[in-house]
């Protein structure tokens, strides 16, 4: 009795169907998007996934909190970045479907931009109020495995006054401040400098990288 109750408590309660995560990337990504990504190094896509997919990701991230393992108990990073993270593994039902869809987007970038992407990785992230992530590129000095970064946002009802903007310096050296709106995917060259401004309330996202190296088994 006790044992099964425990199993039930710790079991994933996320209901998600792969079909809900299907995106017609050929339809979503226009010629203009591809030109902008190639020339300026970044694009923004809004209303990317279905409501069902968005809700499943919100649940799995802990943004909608009815499950024990939320990101408030994730792995805390250094002073430079204030987010708690949880890598997406096969145990993440919604997250795995999300990554499969991202792999299809990567295939489009390979076909149309010769991006040379071999696999993708992603983690849920939660920035507590009062935290951000200082200026950085997603490739540490001397590394170039990450080709394209994509950040997907999970907070309903986020406004500019809530802070937490993603600030990106593009290939033309122009600064852009992007509000982390739910169901928004910001895609950018992993070598661009960017930062997360201090968030004034808990900020949930999925940080995603499309990489040129071969898949290495995930080790926690
Ligand atoms: C990162 C990052 C941006 C964001 O996790 O490397 O830059 O908007 N995130 O969350
Ligand atoms: Mn980054």
Termini gap? 31 Å
Determine the number of helices (DSSP H or I, runs of at least 4 residues). 5
Averaged pLDDT, please?
89
| CATH architecture level-2 label | Sandwich
SSE ordering: HHHEHEEHEEEEEEEE
Number of domains: 1
How would you describe the shape?
globular
Low-pLDDT stretches are: 1-11, 66-70
Task: Say how many strands there are.
Answer: 11
Structural class: alpha+beta
CATH class, please?
Mainly Beta
CATH superfamily: q2cbj1_9rhob like domain
CATH topology: Jelly Rolls
- Summarize the biggest pleated sheet: 7 strands, antiparallel
Radius of gyration: 17 Å
What brief labels describe this structure?
disordered N terminus; alpha+beta; 5 helices; 11 strands; 25% strand; 25% helix; seven-stranded antiparallel sheet; binds N-oxalylglycine; Jelly Rolls; 220 residues; binds manganese (II) ion
């Amino acid at each position: 009795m006790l044992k099964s109750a425990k199993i039930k408590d710790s079991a994933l309660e996320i209901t998600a169907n792969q079909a809900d995560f299907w995106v017609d990337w050929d339809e979503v990504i226009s010629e203009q998007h591809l030109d902008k990504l190639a020339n300026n190094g970044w694009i923004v896509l809004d209303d990317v996934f279905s409501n069902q997919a968005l809700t499943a990701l919100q649940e799995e991230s802990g943004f909608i909190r009815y499950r024990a393992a939320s990101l408030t108990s994730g792995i805390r990073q250094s002073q430079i970045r204030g987010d708690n993270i949880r890598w997406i593994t096969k145990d993440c039902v919604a997250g795995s479907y999300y990554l499969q869809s991202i792999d299809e987007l990567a295939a489009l970038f390979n076909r149309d931009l010769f991006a040379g992407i071999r696999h993708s990785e992603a983690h849920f992230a939660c920035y507590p109020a009062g935290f951000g992530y200082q200026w950085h590129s997603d490739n540490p000095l001397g590394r170039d495995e990450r080709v394209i970064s994509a950040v997907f946002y999970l907070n309903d009802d986020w406004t500019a006054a809530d802070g937490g903007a993603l600030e990106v310096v593009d290939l033309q050296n122009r600064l852009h401040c992007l509000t982390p709106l739910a169901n928004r995917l910001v895609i950018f060259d992993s070598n661009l400098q960017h930062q997360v401004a201090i968030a004034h309330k808990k900020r949930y996202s999925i940080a995603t990288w499309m990489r040129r190296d071969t898949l290495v088994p995930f080790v926690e």
